[in-house]
């Protein structure tokens, strides 16, 4: 049912695009009752939606009527993630405009010499790890723009604050979105959408003008089954229906919206026939391994640096290793003190493992060269701020935060790693 309404909106106003006037919001032939005219005059909300692990070519599976209509009626592209093409580094890039090497979330797992014995994981919400770059919701709140986050990596962090370890981890002097939820994977996609719609039902004084929404099920299916499987197709269809539920809810509220739909990275197929046993290349007595998979991050055992370098820094099938200082400049990665001294990057589809594989598997992962086609990420923008029917060349995801600043009315920022250049010809002025 929602699809027919989506298509009607697309035909009438490029799907949420002319929602600047009451008549353009309703599907063709639907009159807006007098009692809803005030609601129809609402200012547009900007909703940043992440579909974790969504490759652009998933739109070709034939199961995405809503997303495909949004793309056709708006702006779309294949977006390049930052390196490493992992979830937390890229989500923080999307909302800060800085590469991981600069904003400090350099991996899903990392260490810092200022916190010996402590390891950052995807559950870490101590502001210490996050404070190097200001996220867009904090910038917006400082400017008087109300924000709400229905999940987003880092959105639960009391940004800029200090965690008091001896005070039950209380955070002081922190900035947060006006409304936010602590991530819980058990919260369904429909529940997440309903939370956003509920926020938008509020009166203007407490209604958010900028919202984030995050979905993880496509990424989960990619890891469990791989990107080219029936299970993935079902996950993509399910997410498309949930985006359709959001579009329907916006239409029911007569709420104009700029939807900016992104992914943090793509997904590559992996299997047990394409693995590299690290302990067969270097002696485990020479290194400490922090991360492994698409890439390996290592520390040399004190006094064993020369032995480790002799083993790593020579040609290897399906893998290249560098000293931190020698990581190629195009990765824009290697100056942050949280990056370990040695990095080994596998060829896309190959996995670096601690030891030889003993069990057959077929799955998927990400974290590879950010220019690999398999790592490309979805980008769709649709709404009153955007011209319809535009396809852009590929661009870097550092450009998303500058785009958001344009759309929600913040001035351009200095010192970011991206800019709004890719979008200047598709933004309505």
Q: What is the typical, i.e. mean, pLDDT?
A: 92
Task: Just give the CATH class of the largest domain.
Answer: Alpha Beta
Taking pLDDT < 50 over at least 5 consecutive residues as the criterion, the unreliable ranges are: 1-15, 17-37
Task: Write down the CATH topology of the largest domain.
Answer: Alkaline Phosphatase, subunit A
- Into how many domains do the coordinates divide? 2
Q: Could you state the CATH homologous superfamily of the largest domain?
A: Alkaline Phosphatase, subunit A
β content, as a range? Answer: 15-25%
Q: Number of helix segments?
A: 12
CATH structural architecture of the largest domain = 3-Layer(aba) Sandwich
Termini gap: 34 Å
Largest sheet: 9 strands, mixed
Which structural class do the helices and strands define? alpha/beta
The radius of gyration over CA amounts to 22 Å
Strand segment tally? 21
Helical residues, percent: 25-40%
Describe the model.
The protein is of the alpha/beta class and 429 residues long. It has 2 domains: 2-268 and 371-423, 3-Layer(aba) Sandwich (Alkaline Phosphatase, subunit A), CATH 3.40.720.10; 273-359, Gyrase A, domain 2. It is built from 12 helices and 21 strands. The strands form 6 sheets. Strands 1, 2, 5, 8, 9, 10, 19, 20 and 21 form a 9-stranded mixed sheet that branches. A 4-stranded antiparallel sheet has the order 13-14-16-15. A hairpin with a 3-residue loop joins strand 13 (287-291) and strand 14 (295-300). Helix 1 (2-13) runs parallel beside helix 4 and helix 1 packs across helix 10. The protein is globular.
């Amino acid at each position: 049912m929602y699809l027919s309404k989506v298509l009607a909106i697309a035909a009438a106003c490029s799907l949420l695009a002319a929602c600047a006037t009451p008549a353009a919001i309703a599907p063709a032939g639907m009159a807006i009752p007098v009692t809803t005219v005030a609601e129809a005059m609402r200012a547009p909300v900007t909703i940043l939606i992440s579909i974790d692990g969504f490759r652009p070519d998933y739109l070709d599976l034939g199961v995405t009527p809503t997303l495909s209509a949004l793309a056709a009626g708006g702006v779309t592209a294949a977006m390049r993630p930052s390196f490493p093409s992992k979830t937390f580094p890229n989500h923080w890039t999307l909302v800060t405009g800085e590469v991981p090497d600069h904003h400090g979330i350099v991996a899903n797992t990392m260490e810092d010499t200022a916190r010996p014995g402590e390891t950052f994981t995807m559950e870490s919400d101590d502001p210490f790890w996050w404070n190097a770059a200001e996220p867009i919701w904090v910038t917006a709140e400082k400017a008087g723009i109300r924000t709400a986050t229905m999940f987003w990596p880092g959105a639960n962090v009391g940004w800029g604050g200090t965690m008091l370890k001896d005070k039950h981890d209380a955070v002081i002097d922190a900035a947060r979105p006006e409304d936010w939820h602590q991530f819980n994977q058990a919260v369904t996609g429909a529940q997440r959408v309903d939370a956003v719609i509920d926020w938008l039902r509020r009166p203007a004084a407490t209604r958010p003008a900028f919202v984030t929404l995050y979905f993880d099920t496509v990424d989960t299916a990619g890891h469990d089954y791989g990107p080219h499987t029936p299970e993935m197709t079902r996950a993509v269809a399910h997410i498309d229906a949930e985006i359709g539920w959001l579009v329907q809810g916006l239409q029911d509220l007569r709420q104009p919206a700029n939807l900016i739909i992104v992914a943090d990275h793509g997904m590559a197929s992996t299997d047990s026939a394409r693995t590299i046993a690290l302990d067969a290349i270097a002696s485990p007595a020479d290194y400490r391994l922090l991360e492994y998979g698409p890439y390996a991050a290592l520390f040399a055992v004190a006094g064993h640096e020369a032995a480790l370098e002799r083993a790593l820094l020579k040609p290897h099938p399906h893998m290249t290793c560098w000293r931190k200082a020698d990581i190629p400049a195009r990765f824009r990665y290697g100056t942050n003190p949280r990056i370990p001294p040695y990095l080994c990057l596998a060829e896309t589809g190959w996995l670096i493992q601690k030891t030889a594989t003993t069990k057959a598997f077929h799955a998927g992962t990400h974290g590879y060269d950010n220019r690999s086609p398999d790592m490309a990420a979805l980008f769709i923008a649709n709404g009153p701020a955007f011209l319809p029917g535009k396809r852009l060349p590929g661009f870097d995801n550092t450009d998303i935060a500058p785009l958001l600043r344009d759309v929600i009315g913040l001035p351009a920022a200095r010192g970011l790693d991206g800019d709004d250049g890719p979008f200047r010809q598709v933004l309505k002025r």
